[in-house]
Design goal:
The chain is an alpha+beta fold and 234 residues long. The chain has helices spanning 4-25, 31-56, 92-98, 103-115, 138-150, 158-171, 181-192, 198-203, 205-216, and strands at 66-70, 73-78, 89-90, 123-128, 131-136, 217-222, 225-230. The chain has a three-stranded antiparallel beta sheet with strand order 1-2-3. A two-stranded antiparallel sheet has the order 4-5. The longest helix is centred in the N-terminal third of the chain and has 26 residues, at 31-56.
């Protein structure tokens, strides 16, 4: 049986071979024309392969947890494919569009995500109603937006905007009760991408706060809102 990742690899091969033929037939094509041809090939290949995949092995389509909007563009969030506590994943192509990343740079980054083996643990291809869609982990969004801020491609504060946009997706996860020890433990594992050891907690202020909330936190109500109060032992 051909799985979704194998389908995505085949789709990339078809895309590359088609663009090679395009370059050969139109040697004077501009980079913009080549990118336009690539987009056309990709859309057609995605649709054809999705239909083939459905015939070979019918598979339920993956629906987004939440569709946010940033700068009048959609940003889709999906449940993590990992079998441990993890923050929602996102669609990198949506993220690039939301923050108006220059098209050529965006295409190069997305292509690297698809083909570079160093990203294999943070990238998946899922079948959606719109075709094959690449999704990426929360940490990929953090690294991507941070890097683009550093080189001046996007404005500062993009990651905070992304986090706020994803909060409704968090609400749709099956989490332990908010404020409970189990909740903070879940968040700690998700933030660390695994169970953190004492050294990791000591070196990370964020993990240290989550660890303190797990061990010493209590839920209190202030002005009609639930808050967490941490009382450290003397």
């Amino acid at each position: 049986m051909i799985n979704v990742d194998e389908m995505a690899e085949l789709m990339l091969t078809v895309e590359n071979e088609s663009i090679a033929l395009f370059r050969k037939r139109f040697p004077n094509a501009t980079p913009g024309e080549i990118n336009q041809a690539r987009d056309i090939v990709r859309v057609e290949a995605e649709e054809q392969l999705l239909q083939l995949q459905r015939k070979i092995r019918p598979q339920p389509l993956t629906e987004p947890l939440h569709v946010a909007e940033i700068n009048s563009h959609r940003l889709r969030f999906f449940k993590s494919p990992r079998d441990r506590p993890d923050l929602p994943w996102h669609v990198p192509a949506d993220l690039a569009t939301c923050f108006a990343l220059e098209e050529g740079l965006a295409n190069a980054i997305l292509r690297d995500m698809k083909t570079n083996s160093r990203w294999k643990d943070d990238i998946r291809t899922v079948a959606t109603a719109e075709g094959f869609t690449m999704i990426a982990s929360h940490s990929m969004a953090q690294g991507f937006l941070g890097a683009m801020e550093e080189v001046g491609q996007i404005a500062k504060g993009a990651f905070e905007i992304y986090v706020r946009a994803g909060m409704p997706a968090m609400d749709k996860l099956d989490l332990p009760p908010w404020g409970s020890k189990e909740f903070w433990q879940w968040m700690k594992i998700a933030a660390n991408r695994g169970e953190p050891d004492d050294r990791s907690i000591a070196l990370s202020p964020g993990l240290a706060l989550l660890d303190a909330a797990e061990k010493y936190g209590e839920v209190v109500e202030r002005n009609g809102e639930q808050k967490v109060r941490i009382r450290m032992p003397e």
